[in-house]
Design goal:
The complex is a heterotrimer of chains A (about 180), B (about 190) and C (about 350). By secondary structure, chain B is of the alpha/beta class. Chain B is built from eight helices and six strands; from the N terminus they run αβααβααβαβααββ. Helices cover about 40% and strands about 20% of the residues of chain B. Chain B has a six-stranded mixed beta sheet, sandwiched between helices. In chain B, α2 crosses α3. Chain C has two domains: about 210 residues, 3-Layer(aba) Sandwich (Rossmann fold); about 110 residues, 3-Layer(aba) Sandwich (Rossmann fold). In chain C, α1 runs parallel beside α2, α3 packs parallel to α4 and α10 packs across α11. Chain C is globular. The chains are: A alpha/beta (about 180), B alpha/beta (about 190), C alpha/beta (about 350).
């Protein structure tokens, strides 16, 4: 049974909401039930940003993820806030270039990715989110990489497609 | 400090001033609330000559809700609810609040200032001081309109925003004293 | 699923209205529904229709009054404090029997309150809000797809009964994205708008749109006519979902909107612990689905629990529907706090006393 309840979290401007959106589009591509729910309000102006994304065989219940199968964090406050939300045996993906502390949980799988460094090698720090998303898809297999690429092609900016693709692949490679 | 409903600050301020006439009362309002939903309240507070001061910050856009068209949005300006640029044929023209208020006999002092440069900030400070002095003397209603920037919702850097204000807002909203009944000056 | 698209609730509202033939949209920015106006500002000019940002919610609802009276499909959208401002106009529209659609993407109150999801406008929507003996039909969708379907239905129901219809969601529904499909809809047989004040059109006399009846006899007759209409709506338009209500149940949750989905999660959690809980999900908040209670009342051991993101507003309708036949419990959060499935499950365990 496919079921992933994911929280993406970081600063506004890191592409937190868009990585969630691309994954939701990919899920739709694979006929999964999907939902995407952003934090809204004062956060949008430079503060923390997060979104809940659910991909499932079954109809989506609450769109707000509390017990996450996977959490992706791109800053320290997000790790502090969401580390406890990962279910036992779940997955925590950390941008280790931006989070300066070790996670405390021992009952979950943790992947630390130097996403900023990898993204910079690919071409731009701005696509660090895609590195992390690549790792998530590789690890959870919630959607096929082709579906994600298709989502990126249809809903992303064309001029960034190749860069994004490379970033996704590097992220997937790292998680392999 | 009171938090008033969107646009209603001049009415709330009127209530305070009438209840406690010795208090110094001012409203701090944006273009969204003062010049849209609160038009009636500001016009009537001024017409009654309420002994209050209004600081009116005009940055030609709604900030709190994330960048929609305001009554003071300039013709052609792109906002979230004027995605093709403000079309005056359907969305009408920007309102020059200071000029409008200065036509009312109850308004004693009305000035438009800008905070785009140090000299202008000093002028703004003087205008605000004068507006409060008029209230303290019990002469009537005073309003200072402050042209301001909104880098976030204009999608510009702070420096670019200051330039945009100078190049676009000041020509449409000329600076200066619009009315000073203490000297008999009306422009 | 090929023609499904991912859409944000607020944008789906706009697109659904366009599909339903909404000719005019009058809005005003307020979080968390501003995307409705933003979407309409982009789309309405493209399809040759009217988008206008009013100077206030008060003006917007009166623009709706004008357009509805002229016989076109019209919608406005706001969030809680803005709906309070519209209350006067809504009463006039109901009094003058004009069809229109009003969207309320509810945020926490009272006063300026907050901007996070809430259901605290239940009383306002179902028990009045404005003055006088009037009723709004109130739809409460639980998903973006249902939002799309109900917004379109709302225009039909409004036209059929010459009555304003409110579609009420919370901030969560407005902000979330889900797949939606704009299905082909059978064309409804609807009465012609011969009452519209849109020029003589060959008639002998001008149509007049008003809600003023100075003679008490006339106003009472008008009210009686409205009441007859409301009875008719109660007979025909009740909508609800029963979930997991087929067998004997320990308890039945009553919950609407996105919160009902969280309740479904709680029901699944409880099932694993051997506790069987059903759900009545009102889709129309007015007319209230009293018949749903009659269907399940003999199957619930411990009665009902109203689960709300408000402080016991729908609870009163649950009590009226149950009418003392079984116990009625309550669980609510407010202010923008969204309950988790676990806390709802815990509350229920407290009532039914652990696993059976």
């Amino acid at each position: 049974m496919a079921n992933q309840e994911i929280i993406f979290a970081g600063f506004g401007g890191q592409g937190i909401l868009s990585m969630g959106k691309f994954l939701a589009y990919a899920g739709l591509e694979e006929n999964l039930n999907v939902s995407w729910f952003p934090s809204y309000g004062p956060e949008m102006r430079g503060g923390t940003s997060n979104c809940s994304v659910i991909l499932s065989d079954e109809p989506v219940g609450s769109p707000l993820v509390v017990d996450a199968t996977t959490v992706v964090v791109m800053n320290r406050p997000s790790l502090d806030k969401f580390e406890s939300h990962v279910v036992k045996g779940g997955l925590l993906i950390i941008d280790s270039d931006l989070v300066n502390r070790e996670p405390e949980r021992t009952d979950i799988e943790i992947i630390k990715i130097p996403a900023q460094k990898i993204a910079e090698e690919v071409g731009s720090k701005k696509i660090a989110n895609m590195v992390l998303l690549g790792a998530l898809v590789e690890k959870t297999k919630i959607v096929k990489m082709e579906s994600l690429l298709k989502a990126l092609k249809e809903h992303g900016k064309e001029q960034f497609y190749e860069l994004n693709k490379k970033a996704l692949e590097r992220g997937a490679e790292f998680a392999r | 400090m009171y938090e008033a409903a969107h646009g209603r600050a001049p009415a709330v301020a009127t209530g305070i001033k009438r209840a406690v006439p010795d208090s110094v009362v001012f409203t701090y309002q944006g273009d969204g609330d003062l010049a849209a939903i609160g038009t009636a309240e500001i016009v009537h507070a001024a017409a009654r000559g309420e002994r209050i001061t209004t600081i009116f910050v005009n940055n030609a856009i709604y900030g709190m809700t994330g960048g929609q068209m305001a009554p003071t949005t300039l013709p052609g300006q792109v906002t979230e609810t004027s995605p093709y640029g403000r079309d005056v044929k359907t969305a009408g023209y920007p309102i020059r609040v200071s000029e409008m208020i200065s036509t009312l006999d109850g308004a004693v002092y009305v000035e438009r200032v800008s905070v785009d440069s140090v000299p202008n900030i000093i002028k703004a400070k003087k205008a605000i001081k004068k507006a409060f002095e008029i209230q303290l003397q019990g002469l009537g209603f005073s309003l200072v309109e402050v042209l301001s920037i909104c880098p976030t919702n204009w999608g510009l850097s702070p420096n670019e925003s200051v330039k945009w204000l100078r190049d676009n807002m000041i020509p449409y909203y000329p600076l200066g004293v619009k009315k000073d009944a203490t000297t008999g000056e009306v422009k | 699923m090929a023609d499904k698209v991912l859409m944000k609730g607020n944008e789906a509202i706009g697109e659904a209205a366009i599909h339903a033939g909404c000719q005019c949209f009058f809005g005003y920015p307020i979080t968390p529904q501003t995307e409705v106006a933003a979407y309409m500002s982009r789309r309405m000019p493209k399809v040759g229709r009217v988008f206008l940002q009013a100077e206030s919610e008060v003006a917007a609802i009166n623009m709706v009054y004008g357009a509805a009276g002229a016989g076109v499909r019209v919608m406005t959208s706001s969030s809680s404090p803005g709906i309070s401002l519209k209350a006067e106009g809504i009463s006039y529209i109901a009094g003058a029997e004009l069809p229109c659609v009003i969207i309320n993407i509810v945020r926490g109150g009272p006063g300026l309150g907050g901007i996070q999801p809430a259901q605290s406008d239940y009383f306002q929507a179902t028990k009045g809000g404005g003055h006088g003996d009037y009723r709004l039909v109130v739809f409460a969708p639980a998903s973006v797809q249902e939002m799309v379907d109900l917004v379109q239905d709302a225009f039909d129901v409004a036209d059929k009964y010459r009555n304003p219809v409110m579609v009420m969601g919370d901030g969560m529904l407005g902000q979330m994205m889900e797949p939606v499909e704009f299905k082909e809809r059978p064309k409804k047989e609807l009465p012609e708008k011969t009452w519209a004040a849109n020029g003589l059109k060959g008639r002998e006399k001008h149509n007049v749109i008003n809600s003023l009846f100075l003679k008490p006899e006339e106003l009472e007759a008008h009210n009686n006519k409205l009441q007859e209409k409301y009875r008719e709506i109660e007979k025909n338009e009740v909508r609800y979902e029963l979930y997991n209500c087929d067998e004997e149940m320990d308890l039945v949750i009553v919950s609407y909107g996105t919160l009902s989905r969280i309740c479904k999660n709680a029901i699944k959690m409880l099932k694993k612990e051997g506790i069987n809980v059903g759900l009545i999900r009102p889709i129309t908040l007015w007319p209230y689905p009293v018949e749903a209670f009659d269907k399940v009342i003999d199957k619930t051991k411990n009665g009902f629990i109203s689960v709300e993101m408000s402080c016991g507003q729908m609870l009163e309708d649950v009590q009226l529907a149950v009418n003392g036949r079984k116990p009625v419990h309550f669980y609510g959060r407010s202010g923008g706090m969204v309950p988790t499935p676990a806390e709802i499950a815990n509350k229920i365990k407290g009532i039914v006393g652990g696993a059976k």
